[in-house]
Write a structure and sequence with these properties.
Elements (H helix, E strand, L loop, with lengths): L3 E3 L24 E4 L11 E7 L12 E3 L4 E5 L14 H14 L9 E8 L2 E20 L2 E12 L7 H8 L14 H7 L16 H4 L6 H10 L3 H14 L5 E5 L10 E7 L5 E10 L9 H10 L5 E6 L5 H9 L4 E4 L1 H10 L3 E2 L2 E2 L1 H9 L5
């Protein structure tokens, strides 16, 4: 996981560590399936998913999200605007939907492993983990200006740091289901075959490095964060409040504080847990629009914690990142605080479909910053 491999089959087969190591996956699609040689099945021996985050000749309108904090990857299916066929008739969508249906039916032994990679630069890829599909939703996005229905698959990253290529190839050559497991099979995959999901343990990645909290330097995503840092403090706070408020899968109330006498925090509200829980959790939030090289240290976190009353939760949001000491203070002392970094803000914007090309939806941004905070 996190290692970069050579993806250059067109120029050097000898150097290539992707298509050459995983023969049968092809060299173009984002959803690549490697079939069994003899075993008859509706699904392939294993699946490789690729997220491109660089410009490419093949248009890809979907933004995938990789979130190690929750051990989740949100991956769009392969449907694009096509008047002649629906989202269900794209090959990648067909395969992943069948895999998810087997998950719903509890047919664990028939489910193939899924490997997810990111392509951040020409000639190389990064391995993000061994995954299983844990949910799917039908939603829409815009492709060449047209609304398109598509599946978005929720992948859970398993607690596996390394995957042996020979294990994958042994699956391809298996003659029956009893040959799917051998000495090379990851322990977390053996657990999954018994119906238990051992997701990536948070403690392995809970102390995040700077590069894990920010988009790549010089990227379009960094320019988006720079745009936010140019806002006035009250405008930036209004943007964050609107982002939280707009998330569809979260049931909560959130409000921006007064311009003066705000009590030392920038927004507040409560999470509303639905039936059968039916209770509220109050939270206080602080927002800091800092430049890339200006991190949040432990002192600022301590000040937020000091303002929390019994039973309250804290949310700290920044366009920058958190130092190792700040993260250790939250984790070591068990503070009821969630830290949101610059990359988290980008993921919020993606989730709400507020990114237009290389920037933020300007009409939405202008409308939000014109609103006055609640008084």
């Amino acid at each position: 996981m996190g290692h970069t491999y050579v993806d250059d089959i067109a120029n050097s087969r000898e150097r290539d560590q992707f298509v050459r190591w995983l023969p049968g996956i092809g060299n173009s699609k984002g959803i690549r399936c490697c079939k069994y040689k003899e075993y008859k099945s509706q699904v392939p021996a294993f699946i490789v998913l690729l997220t491109r985050v660089i410009n490419h000749k093949h248009h890809n309108p979907w933004d995938d999200i990789i979130d190690y904090n929750s051990s989740k990857i949100f991956y769009w299916g392969d449907a694009k605007f096509d008047p002649s066929r629906s989202y269900e008739n794209f090959e990648g969508n067909k395969t992943l939907k069948i895999v998810f249906e087997k998950w719903l039916d509890g047919k664990w032994s028939e489910i193939p492993p899924i490997l997810h990679f990111s392509k951040k630069a020409k000639g190389s890829i990064v391995f993000n983990g061994l995954c299983v599909i844990s949910n799917v939703e039908l939603t829409w996005f815009e492709d060449v200006g047209k609304p398109v229905k598509n599946y978005r698959f929720e992948l859970t990253i398993l607690d596996v740091e390394q995957v042996n290529v020979n294990w994958l190839l042994s699956r391809v050559n298996a003659r029956n289901s009893t040959e799917f497991t051998n000495d090379l099979t990851p322990k977390a995959w053996e657990s999954f075959q018994k119906g238990r999901i051992d997701k990536l343990r948070l403690h392995k990645r809970e102390i995040l490095k700077k590069d894990d909290q920010l988009p790549e330097e010089g990227s379009d995503e960094e320019k988006i964060l720079n745009t936010l840092t140019l806002l006035k403090p009250v405008e930036f706070e209004a943007v964050l409040v609107e982002l939280f408020r707009s998330l569809q899968h979260v049931n909560h109330n959130i409000r921006q504080t007064r311009l003066v006498k705000d009590g030392g925090f920038d927004f507040y509200g409560e999470f509303n847990l639905p039936f059968p829980f039916s209770y509220k959790i109050e939270f206080l939030g602080e927002a800091k629009k800092y430049a890339r090289n200006n991190p949040i240290g432990p002192g600022m976190i301590s000040r937020l914690v000091a303002r929390l009353a019994r039973g309250q939760y804290g949310l700290f949001v920044t366009t920058s990142y958190y130092t190792k000491q700040a993260q250790e203070e939250v984790l070591g002392d068990g503070y009821p605080v969630r830290l949101y970094n610059g990359l988290d803000i980008i993921n919020f914007l993606r989730e709400l479909k507020l990114l237009n090309g290389s920037g933020i939806n300007h009409a939405w941004l202008a409308e939000v910053i014109q609103k006055k905070p609640n008084v």
